């Protein structure tokens, strides 16, 4: 039998997960666990890993003091905990493969790639809400954020995709199924880094960057959690054929899953 594949898009704002049975997400928030009486809610994630206790997701926001991870690198304990929770909640009991993403500007960074694999690959022992499991992440595959979403909904001709995230905005181009690196990249701006998270302001910043190589007559697919809010502003600024994807929040992780599947069958 194939080893289960778990795709994880550990974004700055939310961790999106896809496995063979479906998709789910939780806030990318991790805090040291705080002792004391509290309410126990359905989505609470109390995690014990490597001798330390953490609150993850909504519980971290409600009862903990989560730190915002605003560094560029994803090689960080927070990423590890998010991936472990994703694997655990996917009911992996033994072993799995993980497919995750890197922003376009970091994708070829060997230190980042090797660091992320080293962080995630191997045997892990984790306890979530009192349930202890030991599993092995046998292999970590890395996909391009934004660009990989293409593989969940491939199209012929010129395809432009823009992914405004919490901290950065990735943009990608495919021509007849071929990724075009020189018309793709990362803009260091996102909904949580632009003052007021103003959609018109975001659209202006994005348009001035993508406008260098993209034509206003191109269809532009918008993905990410706030895709809908960018549709009208991008149209007004000149990209008249901009449109929000159908499940924008999950577009990346659906793409990661497809890339992971094609690697298995290669
Ligand atoms: N369900 C939702 N409803 C409304 N807004 C949302 C929702 N989910 C996310 N957002 C908003 O959309 C923004 C982008 O979310 P998204 O999950 O795409 O970012 P991310 O992938 O975590 O970030 P990055 O790609 O920069 O690491 C967030 O800053 C958040 O404010
Ligand atoms: Mg993202």
From TrEMBL:
It comes from Melghirimyces profundicolus. Transmembrane segments: none annotated. It holds the Pfam family ALP_N. This is Actin-like protein N-terminal domain-containing protein. Residues 7-145 form the Actin-like protein N-terminal domain.
């Amino acid at each position: 039998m194939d080893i289960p594949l778990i795709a994880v898009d550990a974004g700055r704002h939310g961790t999106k997960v896809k496995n063979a049975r479906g998709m789910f997400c939780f806030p990318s928030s991790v805090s040291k666990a705080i002792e004391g009486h509290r309410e126990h809610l359905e989505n609470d994630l109390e995690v014990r890993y490597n001798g330390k206790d953490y609150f993850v997701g909504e519980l971290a926001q409600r009862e903990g003091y989560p730190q915002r991870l605003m560094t560029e690198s994803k090689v960080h304990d927070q990423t590890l905990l998010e991936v472990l929770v994703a694997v655990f909640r996917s009911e992996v009991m033994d072993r799995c493969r993980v497919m995750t993403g890197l922003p376009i500007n970091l994708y070829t960074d060997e230190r980042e790639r090797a660091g992320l694999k080293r962080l995630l690959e191997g045997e892990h022992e984790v306890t979530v809400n009192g349930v202890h499991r030991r599993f092995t992440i046998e292999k970590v595959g890395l996909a391009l954020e934004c660009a990989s979403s293409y593989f969940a909904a491939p199209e012929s001709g010129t395809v432009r995709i823009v992914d405004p995230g919490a901290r950065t905005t990735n943009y990608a181009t495919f021509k007849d199924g071929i990724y075009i690196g020189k018309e793709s990249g990362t803009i260091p701006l996102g909904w949580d880094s632009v003052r007021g998270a103003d959609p018109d302001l975001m659209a202006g910043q994005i348009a001035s960057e993508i406008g260098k190589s993209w034509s206003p007559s191109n269809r532009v697919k918008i993905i990410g959690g706030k895709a809908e809010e960018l549709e009208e502003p991008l149209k007004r600024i000149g990209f008249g054929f901009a449109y929000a994807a159908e499940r924008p929040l999950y577009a990346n992780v659906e793409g990661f899953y497809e890339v992971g599947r094609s690697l298995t069958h290669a």
